[in-house]
Amino acid sequence: MEGFKNLYVILLLPKKAGNVGSVARVLKNFQVENLRVVTKKKKLTETFEAKKMAVHAEEILKKAEVFSDTESAIADLNLVIGATGKKHKEIPERLNIRDLKKVIDLLGKNKIGILFGPEDRGLSNEEIGLCNFSLTIPASKNYSSLNLSHSVAVVLYEFFQQSQNFEPSKRLLASKESMERMYERMKDVYLEIGFLDKINPNRIITVIRNIYDRALLNEREVRILMGILKQTLWYKNRFKP
After folding, report:
1. How many angstroms separate the first and last alpha carbons of the chain?
2. Contact 169, 106 (CB under 8 A)
3. Is the pTM higher than 0.90?
4. Are 198 and 191 in contact (CB under 8 A)?
5. Which of 54, 37, 48, 78 is nearest to 173 (CA)?
6. Furthest-apart CA pair in the chain: how many Å?
């Protein structure tokens, strides 16, 4: 496999510029070029500390994309994997880190992101909920927390090793932006028809998201589901007592 042109590493609210630089260096080690940073510190990737830790990967740091929120950082991607060591309620399907073939093969046509949370807390339930899959690095139960750049290194190592038998899939998935639009529409319609609890609609919506995320829908399938939602609302309003 010639590099990972469609693989993106996304750092969510990193605390230290040095860690961002160290991650850039890891990307260089494993032929990954795309680094995205969600941060309110716009100059984080341009600091002396970041450049010092990047060593020979300053070009990756220089072209790193900076976003103000997670949703915009993943909008154009087709699939997102959340790297987490925490126990989440209703977590997306967990991938086996030693068996990533089904997502690696999708790299031929699709943009795939790996989302890493802040060093001090990892990903929240809401943030992991934006992902199609979750991924956990096996570690000691006594101390399972890994340094950010070490976590990125372990995950990219597995991608690098397992990509040797790359079989590109022709399936082009829907973008995360399209999927999020569909989930918002589902929430509105299901509230309208009384399927969701108005006090806590996200309890069921989270399960529904997990179901469709596992299905790896394409844009046509999303349009069909959006059409069903539109027709459902039309039918309800037409026959409203």
Report:
1. 60
2. yes
3. yes
4. yes
5. 78
6. 69
- Retrieve residue 26's tokens: 């890891």
Tell me which DSSP letter residue 66 carries: E
Residues 6+ apart with CB under 8 A from 99: 162
Residue reference for tokens 């154009």: 76
Q: What is the pLDDT of residue 85?
A: 82
| pLDDT tens digits, 89-127 | 778 999 999 999 999 999 999 999 999 999 988 999 999
**Residue 147 falls in which region: left (phi positive, over 0), alpha (psi -120 to 50) or beta:** beta
Q: How many angstroms from the chain centroid is the CA of residue 90?
A: 16
Distance CA 17, CA 145 (A): 19
Pairing state of beta strands 93-95 and 79-83?
unpaired
In percent, the amount of the chain with pLDDT more than 90 equals: 79
